[in-house]
Design brief:
The complex is a heterodimer of chains A (138) and B (118).
Chain A: E1 2-9, H1 15-28, H2 37-54, E2 62-70, E3 73-80, H3 107-115, E4 118-124, E5 127-135
Antiparallel strand pairs in A: 1-2, 2-3, 3-5, 4-5
Helix pairs in contact in A: 1-2, 2-3
Chain B: E1 2-7, E2 12-20, H1 22-37, E3 45-56, H2 58-74, E4 77-81, H3 85-94, H4 96-99, E5 101-103, H5 106-111
Parallel strand pairs in B: 2-3, 3-4, 4-5
Antiparallel strand pairs in B: 1-2
Classes of the chains: A alpha+beta (138), B alpha/beta (118).
């Protein structure tokens, strides 16, 4: 079991810090670069969701990110201390809508669902926890 | 993301290089809007060349959607070309490949412009 954890303020400027955290984990675990896309997307979409929707105005929340590799299964967990919110309840976007009718809202969570093998939400005490797991061939 | 703009007779080409994530999307959107507006007059067509684009998220896709819509309203042709596998995957997942012209390379994108070579 290979596990790394980091915590950042819930603000958009921290996105590159998290992207770097993922990149370093990937290199250290010698995972194939071609398989990082699902996790890069999931980390950005879930983190930005927390920053834009999960942080009450005027408050300074924190987001904790954990990557855990067990055998060939990689789990990304994102926890925040915002009010209870399950992003998996958001309606799926209509990916067949015409150009005029297309919405970008909801696309991030849709990507996460499509790219990961399993996604689950739990409220753990004062925190939201989203866990995403996917097999990575090594 | 780094952006270069090439102006051809039949189209303006925006060349995007690097990562198009939330942090980069605002700046990229401004540059695409400028390219659509043109300097002296608006171009007949805009092509976004993604050969060197390594990563795109929903925030980056939004810019493509807004640009495609804006071009359609202004009667400008719009196409995206040369997507790498990782970017192509995100375009396909989002369904954007079905609502905008996505071509394998720049020559194909230029060839399908109205009045372009047969």
């Amino acid at each position: 079991m290979n596990e790394r954890r980091t915590s950042v303020p819930s603000e958009a400027a921290q996105l590159p810090v998290l992207a770097q955290f993922l990149h370093e984990f990937w290199s250290a675990a010698a995972l194939p670069p071609t398989q990082s896309l699902a996790f890069e997307i999931a980390l950005e979409e879930v983190f930005m969701n927390v920053v834009t929707h999960g942080t009450p105005a005027g408050s300074q929340g924190r987001v904790e990110v954990c990557l855990a590799l067990a055998d060939n299964s990689l789990t990304l967990a994102v926890e925040d201390d915002g009010p209870p919110f399950d992003p998996l309840t958001l309606p799926a976007p209509d990916v067949n809508a015409s150009l005029d009718q297309r919405q970008v809202g909801g696309l991030g969570v849709y990507f996460v669902r499509q790219l990961m093998d399993a996604v689950s939400y739990r409220r753990v005490g004062p925190r939201n926890q989203l866990r995403m797991t996917k097999q990575v061939a090594r | 993301v780094k952006v270069r703009v090439e102006t051809l007779e039949q189209a303006t080409i925006v060349i995007a290089e690097g990562r198009l994530d939330f942090s980069a999307a605002g700046n990229f959107q401004r540059q695409v809007e400028q390219a659509l507006a043109g300097t002296e007059h608006a171009p007949r067509a805009l092509i976004i060349d993604c050969a060197d684009l390594e990563y795109i998220s929903s925030a980056g896709l939004r810019v493509f959607l807004l640009a495609a819509r804006s071009a359609q309203r202004a009667g400008q042709a719009f196409a995206v070309c040369s997507l790498r596998q990782s970017v192509r995957e995100v375009f396909d997942l989002s369904g954007f490949s079905r609502v905008m012209s996505v071509l394998p390379d720049r020559a194909a994108a230029l060839a399908q412009l109205p009045g372009g070579p047969e």
